[in-house]
Design a protein that fits this description.
Layout lengths: L5 E2 L5 E2 L2 H5 L6 E6 L4 E3 L7 E7 L2 E6 L5 E7 L4 E2 L13 E4 L3 E7 H10 L1 H27 L2 H12 L16 H8 L3 H13 L3 E3 L3 E3 L4 H5 L2
Antiparallel strand pairs: 1-2, 3-10, 4-9, 5-8, 5-10, 6-7, 6-9, 11-12
Helix pairs in contact: 2-3, 4-5, 5-6
Length: about 220
């Protein structure tokens, strides 16, 4: 069953991707998670696609010897679990809520139908996937050529969604251990750089972490 249409700005009746992603309905439901709750686990059946309405989600993988690696921190507007569309039968990652989060669960068949029938929705999803691929390539370059200090600065700017039209007012609470896993460094190194950034006025602690745009200068510095 196709979602109900409503008039667009041009006065024509059409599919509203934003309204669809912000509400429950046929073949989709909204699930709320508390901080620390598991959204899905590595090895679970991959039968749907998720969309983060609000909150923050940590995506991680666990090795056979029990070592965890954080591969992404997601924010509102991000899709995840999309491997189900590419034939994945089980989840290859674990998704954990870092703050109170609302997640839209879209059944796989409904997602496939939307991508085929609704150009506006398909464009939004394609933009998301292209953006994620660009970030993955940038992450690889970052790991290969940049120092751990610059990797940390870039990670903090990404978490703060620097440069986006509607950045979050507060960042998700994230431990130094998690930051260390994300940039491939030790916790002591992260602690050293975080103290350095604070003394330079690049970040602030005021009931939470605030990342100032001046942190970008550290990345651009030769």
């Amino acid at each position: 069953m196709k979602p109900k249409s409503r008039p667009t700005e041009k006065g024509h009746r059409g599919f509203d991707a934003v309204a669809y992603l912000e509400s429950a309905g046929p073949a989709r439901k909204v699930v709320k998670y508390r901080p620390g709750a598991i959204v899905f686990s590595q090895g679970d059946p991959a039968a749907d696609i998720r969309y983060l309405q609000k909150g923050a989600i940590k995506v991680s993988v666990l090795s056979r010897i029990g070592k965890e690696a954080v591969v992404a921190i997601l924010g509102p507007g991000d899709f995840f679990g999309e491997g189900a569309l590419a034939g994945q039968l089980v989840r290859i990652e674990t998704a954990t809520a870092m703050s109170p989060s609302s997640v839209l669960v879209i059944e796989k068949e409904a997602m496939v139908r939307l991508l085929h029938e609704e150009p506006e929705f398909a464009d939004r999803f394609l933009s998301h996937m292209l953006g994620r691929n660009i970030r993955i390539e940038a992450d690889l370059v970052d790991q290969l050529f940049n120092s751990s200090e610059k990797r940390l600065a870039r990670t903090l700017l990404l978490l703060a969604r620097y440069g986006q039209a509607d950045p979050p007012r507060t960042m998700p609470k994230i431990s130094q251990e998690t930051l260390a896993e994300m940039i491939g460094a030790t916790r002591s190194r992260v602690n050293f750089f975080m103290n350095k950034f604070r003394k330079l006025g690049l970040i602030e602690y005021n009931g939470g972490l605030k990342v100032n745009s001046s942190l970008l200068s550290l990345i651009l510095r030769d």
